[in-house]
Amino acid sequence: MTQSRQYACEHRGLTGTDAVHRNISCSQVVFGVYAFLFFAALACGGCQSPLPPLPNPPGPRTAVRLSPGDVIKVSYADESIPDQTQKIQRDGKVSLPLIGEVTAVGKRPIDFQHELASRYEGKLENNEVLVTLENGTATVTVSGFANKPGGITFDRPMTVYQAIMLAGGVSDYGSASSVHLTRIIDGVQLTETINLRPTIHGKPTRPKYVQDGDVIYIARSWF
Q1: Which residues partner with 13 through β-bridges?
Q2: Are 215 and 149 in contact (CB under 8 A)?
Q3: 153, pLDDT greater than 60
């Protein structure tokens, strides 16, 4: 009788120990599954499908268009009016003798020149004018995981890669393969995804050029 009770107690003790070990193992498995799903969700959050290229990308020889803040000079063939050097206002206009306010922003200097000649027709004996860009700078904003995010000004053609390098390059937490270039086109904000990893590694690539007002965002790297 005593031996039976002892056997039963020992058996119950072993069973309880096995159950505890079994519960611990199950908890570890469940925790591992949740951890995997959590990190997989984070990784997938940084692996969204690349956005398609923006339409009509600028190139190294893309014609310059006048922007607010540009300084232009209007030279008159008619000596009755002195030459005018003006800064294009935030509303995109300049004020000129005899014709008043004229919208200059968004136009090529040569097109603006032809427009002014047409407006001065009948107001001057010689309506020929010459429009030159005296000082024009553009700005692109580099944000996200760059070492020195901020605004970059330029007065000559600049690529996305050059702008990021001027911002200190991609930080240790940034992803060179997930760079977002945002541009306003016809009043609509559009974005494309650029993979700069081949460029950084010295492989031949077709450069992407920025234009005034662009925003470059470097996404976080999850790997």
Answers
A1: none
A2: no
A3: yes
